[in-house]
Amino acid sequence: MKKKTSCRKETSSCETCENYCYDDDLGYYVCEAELDEDEMAHFLSCREFACPYYRLNDEYRIVRKQM
Length: 67
Hints:
Blueprint (H helix, E strand, L loop, with lengths): L19 E4 L4 E4 L5 H9 L15 H6 L1
Antiparallel strand pairs: 1-2
């Protein structure tokens, strides 16, 4: 009997992550986070994936710290 792999319920959108950047050479957006083999397999096998490298692309974060 195969054991089901559980996917985390918390998801993060790649489009709002700091690691999701446009690559001029390729002509499309790529993730610059270094996922290891297990993380990549989990990402590809699940519809919902909570990336451990997700960082909200918040361009006003530094300004709030200065206030």
